[in-house]
Amino acid sequence: xxxxxxxxxFPDEPxxxxxxxxxxxxxxxxxxxxxxxxxxxxxxxxxxRLTVDAYAVQHPGDPSRQGIQSVGVxxxxxxxxxxxxxxxxxxxxxxxxxxxxxxxxHWLEPPFDLGPLTVANVDTTAGxxxxxxxxxxxxxxxxxxxxxxxxxxxxxxxxx
Length: 160
Prior knowledge:
The protein is mostly helical. The protein has helices spanning 25-40, 45-58, 65-83, 88-99, 119-123, 128-145, 150-158.
């Protein structure tokens, strides 16, 4: 079954989905497997937040307050990571500071094409090096596809 946002193909299975990061149950299950892998082995810690950021901005949902703020904070962290070369921990700290101003975030129209890489590509990796490489590529893709909104995201990041 094709996910309505990331366009990845996943098994057509029943199951839960996220409240505001819209996806198919199969896509959400793949994200859960990837997170479980990252939580089980500390070697994945360096890229865990990038996994969450990439998934969140690839599944923006609708313009609800939660959806707006979720996309906003995750794009801020991707910005800080990719443009300011911050470590994941420092980017996270700055994102938390920016989140204090999330009430001023507004809906950013999602790109029509959210790129070819999805959580499915990460879910099928074999080994830590391939997993980390794929997450980094996926996160870079997600920052790039949101480029029409980079100026806005940078201004949100500046609030931090």
